[in-house]
Each structure stands twice: as C-alpha cells, then as structure tokens.
Specification:
Blueprint lengths: L2 H31 L2 H10 L6 H6 L8 E6 L2 E2 L3 E2 L6 H11 L3 E5 L11 H8 L4 E4 L5 H9 L4 E5 L5 H13 L3 E6 L2 H7 L11 E6 L11 H7 L8 E4 L5 H9 L4 E4 L1 H4 L4 H10 L7
Parallel strand pairs: 1-4, 1-10, 4-5, 5-6, 6-7, 7-8, 8-9, 9-10
Antiparallel strand pairs: 2-3
Helix pairs in contact: 2-6, 4-5, 4-12
C-alpha cells in the first residue's frame, strides 16, 4: 500500500470519531435549549408512531423486495448527491413509486439534513419514517419521537452494548422501531443478541455494506455475514445497492429488505428510478 493510501485510510478511520464528537456537543446544546420534560410533552402530542417494522416485514409478496427509500442531500463520502433537493417532492415520488418506508437523514453539518424534515415527510405521505442520524444519547430518542419519527437508527460502532440496550428499550416503550446497524462481523456477533430485545417485532438488523476504512461499498459483505444470522427476515442490507440484479441476489439468500438512497437521488426523477428498480425485480431472475 502506498503512503498516500495509508493516509487516506487513517483519515477515514477518524471521520466517524469526529462526527460522534461533534454530535455529543450538539446534543448538549440541544439539552440546554429544550428540556427533556418539554420533549416528553411534545412526544405525547404527536400521536402513535406508524408501524415501521410491519411496513417492511408483513404482507410481503413472494419474490419481491421491500425498499426503505432514503432522503439525503449529501454525505462525507459522496459529496453533494442532489442539488435540486425538495424533501416533500422526493417523499411523494417515493410513495407513488412503491417505497415501503422512508429513511431521512437529519444530521445538518455533514449530510444537509434537518430534524424538521421528518414532520414535513409525514404530513405529505402515509409511509413510516426512520430518523437516520448518529444517536449517542437517550435524549435523541425522545427528540426523534417528538419530531414525529417512527423509527431510529442505532449504530453499533458508536455505542457501548449497555447504551444500545437502554436505547432499544426506550424506543420500544415509545413504540418505535429500531434499526440496529453493524458494519463488520465482529460487531454483528456482539450485538446480534440484542436485535428483538426486549420484544420481537420492533427491531431490524441492518448490515451496512460500506467499509468504514475505505468508504467503498460491496453488497457481498451482506452475503459474507448472513451465515451467522438465523432470522434473515429482519435483515436490512444497506448501501451499494444499484440494480434489480442486486435485489435478486439478496432475495436468493433470504434478504427481502434493502435501504437505497444515493442511487435513487442521483437520478433525474428518483421516483422513476425506484419504480424501475422494483418493476425489474419482481420475477427474481438474474
């Protein structure tokens, strides 16, 4: 490996740490601005969450894939993804094209998101919405529910096992779904036991196909770790999915849920791109 390569990998290894450090500061500022009691009051007023888990698991026709369609403007690895960025229009396109649920990035600095986008999406479409952010404090679970989120992402790489369990329990108490995400096999083996805890029906297991050292994606990563997963119906393959062939290969291995964002958002009409992805994937042929 060249010295340049080493520098690049070292930089990538610290990128997540920098985001998490920033996020902890943001959370403390949020706590100072809005008390936990205020969040709890707001959460009690937004109504019952839409059932994200059921939207991607239940009543799934054979040989089809349920897609969690993602909304994000940019990312550290991809840069600007979509200049013409209208959250409501994109959400409507996804809904009309057959998305099972929506994932919304709410991190502002690195992803161009906003917590307020969740309400905008839920007001526009009936699909359940996942808040995708870097959750480092239970305060953010309450914040997510108060903002209207039906599900939250918990990244195993940034949480201690005890923190992950506590957050999963709180999310369950608020009747929210958790997408517990692992990037590598070692982490997956550590957290797999907590998926479905404390009760089945509220947790999904996300396998992120992005290598955090190089930021490259490869869906073969999902294939490699599947042999260690007994219940594949709760698996969500994330990142690097761009074609009906990818969907068919995943289905052949028992994975019927995927999260797709960048591929759709780089197309002129994200809804048509999603419709094409779904329409071409029905018969399962590759």
């Amino acid at each position: 490996m060249t010295s340049t390569g080493k520098i690049t990998i070292a930089a990538m290894e610290t990128a997540l740490d920098k985001i998490i450090a920033r996020k902890r500061i943001e959370v403390e500022k949020a706590k100072a601005a809005t008390s936990l009691d205020t969040l709890k009051e707001r959460a009690s007023e937004v109504g019952r969450p839409r059932n994200f888990f059921a939207a991607v698991i239940n009543q799934r026709p054979r040989r089809t894939t349920r897609i969690i369609a993602e909304i994000k403007k940019r990312s550290p690895s991809a840069g600007l993804i979509r200049e013409d960025f209208d959250v409501v229009d994109i959400a409507k396109q996804y809904h009309e094209a057959g998305a099972a649920a929506i994932s919304c990035l709410t991190d502002e600095e690195d992803f161009g998101g906003h917590l307020g986008y969740i309400h905008q999406i839920r007001d526009a479409v009936p699909l359940p919405v996942l808040r995708k952010d870097f959750i480092v404090d239970k305060y953010q679970i309450w914040e997510s529910r108060a903002a209207g989120a039906d599900a939250v992402l918990l990244i195993a790489d940034v949480l201690e096992e005890g923190e992950l369990v506590d957050m999963a329990i709180l999310a369950r108490e608020l009747k929210m779904t958790t997408l517990i995400e692992a990037h590598d096999l070692d982490r997956l083996l550590k957290i797999h036991q907590y998926v479905g805890f404390p009760h089945a029906g509220y947790s999904l297991l996300g396998i992120n196909n992005r290598d955090l050292r190089t930021m490259k994606t490869d869906i073969k990563h999902t294939f490699r770790v599947l042999e260690f997963i007994e219940d594949r119906k709760i698996v969500v393959s994330e990142s690097g999915i761009t074609s009906a062939t990818d969907l068919a290969k995943l289905r052949q291995r028992g994975v019927n849920i995927v999260l797709v964002g960048e591929h759709l958002l780089r197309q002129e009409h994200p809804g048509n791109a999603l419709r094409e992805l779904l329409g071409q994937s029905i018969d399962g042929n590759v």
